[in-house]
Amino acid sequence: MAPKHGLQPPEDAFLKRAKTSATPASRSATPADPIGKVNFRVEYPDIEIPDTEEELEDFKTPPGVELMISPFKAKGASKPGELNQCYKVVPSEAWMNMRKYNNFVIQKETYKNNHFVFVRSEDTPPAVRASGSENLKDFWVARILQVRAVDSQHVYALVSWMYWADELPEPKIKSPDQVTRSGGKRTYHGSHELIASNYMEVLDVLSFAGKADVVQWFEEDDNLHSKLYWRQTFCRQTSELSKIREHCICKGHFNPEVPMYICDNNQCNIWLHKPCLVDDVLMKAYKKAMSNGTNGVTRANSTKGKGKSKPYKNKFSAEIEEDGEGVPPVFLIKDLRPGHEREWRERITCPSCDAELE
The pTM is what? Predict the structure, then answer.
């Protein structure tokens, strides 16, 4: 993971992500003239930062170095202030000599510190506006941390990047829920999910394509009223994602776009993945057939340490049937063994406490 310019940004200058627009009057239009050479880059001095708020109040940085107290506080962070860091914008004299502003205006729209914004990426089609785009992933997303300007024509924003899950790098240690072997996206990441980070960059504000409505989701429900949300952070120093809430007997996680079942037992209330429920009932059917004498079931070798073993494969199948509101879901189970073909229905029980799901 690195700044959006690439894994190894050039030492000399950062080019603004200019796009030619056919509608220069639009708020998301960047002038065709490639004027916006952003000659600032962010460096991260190796300076230890205090952990407590009391110590931070007395913390002093060297000349030209600033302290960033991250606005992102994930529930599963490894420690308080995990994303806090010291940084230096270079050339520092030019940066520090510019005046700070609390807000700025682009095409009659006011932007302020801590606003989330869409940023034109290298793949953004010309003339596309964030407000009208069907694919928000045409844009990058960032959070404004600080604004400085020389004059009204040279306004720069220091931002902290948000990452689409598809942009995450391969983790140091392989995870079983990786979507691909070479990427960091997990199966629980939703299509509108962003990951907050402490990677920073200075942008010309003319690269902004509008405000982004992004909320922090605390995983307390699945009522996500905003189109974009974040719940995890990616730490630049450790290259690790913050932890999120575990669910189900598999100790997995919740993708808000994939329905889960909740145990109605108030002493349990575990959230359960559909595949885990199906796997549980099929294992029970398989073991019951074995206990009654193999009857067409070949006794499997020991599966100790083989969590993915499915001895019921091609012998039993199951699916969940739901008839509507107020009707408990049931399993439709099929015995596929030659000479034993039959099907039956049974109530779904919680694999953790055996209570029936309503």
Answer: 0.81
Q: Which helix (H) or strand (E) holds 278?
A: helix 274-291
Rounded to whole angstroms, the Cα distance separating 255 from 275 reads 13
3-state SS class at 240:
strand
Tokens standing for 130?
């964030």
Establish how many alpha carbons lie within 13 A of residue 317's alpha carbon, considering only the half-sphere containing its beta carbon: 8
Strands 193-204 and 228-235, by their bridges, are parallel
How far is Cα 209 from Cα 27, in angstroms, rounded to an integer? 7
Alpha carbon 265 to its chain centroid, in Å, reads 31
Question: 24: which residues sit within 8 A by CB, 6+ positions away?
Answer: 31, 32
User: Residue 57 is inside which H or E element, if any?
Assistant: helix 53-57
| Cα-based distances in Å from 54 to 51, 59, 65, 86, 142 | 9, 9, 20, 17, 29
Least confident range from 79-93, 287-301, 338-352: namely 287-301
pLDDT at site 220: 79
